[in-house]
Amino acid sequence: MTGAYLLEEKIICDGVFTKFIHNVDCSPLLNPDEDGYDTAEFLCFTQHVQYVKTKGLAYIADYQGSKTLLTDPQILTHPTVGRGKDIFGEGNLEIGVKLFEKEHVCNAFCKWPGFGLKPFRDGSETSGGMN
Prior knowledge:
With 131 residues, this protein is α+β, with helices and mostly antiparallel strands. Helices cover 23% and strands 14% of the residues. The chain has 4 helices and 7 strands; from the N terminus they run E-H-E-E-E-E-H-H-H-E-E. It is flat.
């Protein structure tokens, strides 16, 4: 019998370990009144940017850790990426990318005019992107 072991340096968390965003959900797991909600909103904004910059092919999810160190993120990809092969592990839930434009809710970071992000939906607009 053979085995493989992976050793990793112990990660010192400088605060409370928090799950900010899940693999399949592109909205904060925290309530607005909870500590860390502002971080979760910023991470949702970064997902919006990643999705737009990759033309809807990928973004990072499963953000967790502390306010200064995130661990174990998951790359989510559109089914066309990798031609049907699972290139980023079992956590690469394609449904997250398929539903991103429908489920992402723009927050204050997304709406800041300096970033030029357009909402995916707001009643009149159905496509997202950057100016």
